[in-house]
Design brief:
Layout (H helix, E strand, L loop, with lengths): L2 H19 L11 E8 L6 E9 L5 E9 L3 E2 L9 E9 L2 E10 L2 E10 L1 H9 L14 H11 L3 H9 L7 H9 L4 H9 L7 H9 L4 H10 L6 H9 L4 H9 L7 H9 L4 H10 L5 H9 L7
Antiparallel strand pairs: 1-2, 1-7, 2-3, 4-5, 5-6, 6-7
Helix pairs in contact: 3-5, 8-10, 12-13
């Protein structure tokens, strides 16, 4: 090859690099594929519990399990999930999971591959979501899109959360909101109870421990340190109800801290027991009442 031809080829290759890469950062795509297992849910007939597993090099095995309605699995029939060869797909906004395999006696297994929808990630970025922060485990965008597809994360929920003016949210926050059914209305209602700075983690706690706006308002009206969200979490864990707080107040226990309230609940001390203890000792403290419950009470003569 003549030198002039080599020079032209080299120049063309350099130009191609400039055109392709330019000012862009091109990231290598991560292929998401692996094996799946499935069985019909015993509690919810018509639903399949499908687990997806893949090997991630030095990070070992990655496993994700979700429940799917049979109607969400395209290309599979009711009879096939008993016994049969299957080829089905799960089409979600974040991408499509394509599966092949077999069912034997109601249990299925096979292989899958994931086709990500990068437009979904672009849509989240446009809405202000932090999509590219890798967080723990240095997940690729494909891995995050796969998790979003398996959980059935929807853009409508992202829009709803944005409308609540909750602040900057990550893709992980969107996952939590999907799992725990946290929407813009719930966010707004909790803010309106006097806790304007709740984080997504706080809202997850609220969902787990069944704390809603009505519970917050009723407990706050009783006092007892209910202006602190963590105290509300404790009250919910130990089943401290507004009714219980009202009973304590009626028995003259008006200056209690959250720890005292929880202690009375732990030892199953009700209003009747408090009344009896204070009849014997009008100055009985919470610890005195607990001691009486434990059988180490010293009666005042």
């Amino acid at each position: 090859m003549q030198r002039s031809s080599i020079t032209k080829l080299s120049s063309a290759f350099t130009a191609l690099i400039i055109i392709v890469f330019g000012s862009y950062v091109i990231a290598a795509q991560t292929e998401i594929s692996g094996t799946w297992t499935a069985r019909e849910s015993q509690k919810s007939p018509g639903k399949l519990q499908i687990g997806f597993e893949r090997t991630q090099g030095v990070r070992g095995q990655n496993h994700h399990s979700s429940s799917f309605d049979l109607e969400d699995l395209r290309g599979i029939s009711r009879s096939q999930i008993v016994n049969g060869r299957v080829a089905f797909s799960i089409v979600r906004e974040a991408g499509t999971i394509e599966c092949t395999g077999d069912f034997v006696d109601g249990r299925g297994s096979g292989t899958y591959r994931f086709i990500p929808n990068y437009g979904f990630a672009d849509g989240l970025r446009a809405r202000g979501f932090d999509v590219d922060s890798q967080g723990r485990g240095s997940q690729s965008i494909e891995e995050r899109l796969f998790a979003a597809a398996a959980l059935d994360v929807k853009m409508a929920l992202a829009d709803d959360l944005v409308s609540a003016n909750f602040g900057k949210l990550t893709m992980g926050d969107l996952f939590k909101a999907t799992i725990f059914k946290i929407d813009g209305r719930f966010m707004s209602e909790m803010k309106a109870t006097g806790f304007p700075n709740l984080s997504m983690e706080d809202l997850v706690k609220a969902r787990i421990f069944k704390i809603d706006a009505e519970f917050v308002r009723m407990v706050k009206d009783m006092g007892f340190g209910a202006d602190n969200f963590e105290n509300l979490v404790k009250y919910s864990i130990f089943k401290v109800t507004p009714e219980f707080l009202s009973e304590l107040r009626n028995e003259g226990l008006t200056d209690l801290g959250p720890e005292d309230v929880v202690k009375l609940r732990i030892f199953k001390i009700d209003a009747a027991f408090v009344r009896q203890a204070r009849a014997e000792n009008p100055n009985a403290t919470v610890q005195d009442i607990v001691n009486k419950k434990l059988g180490v009470w010293v009666k005042v003569k």
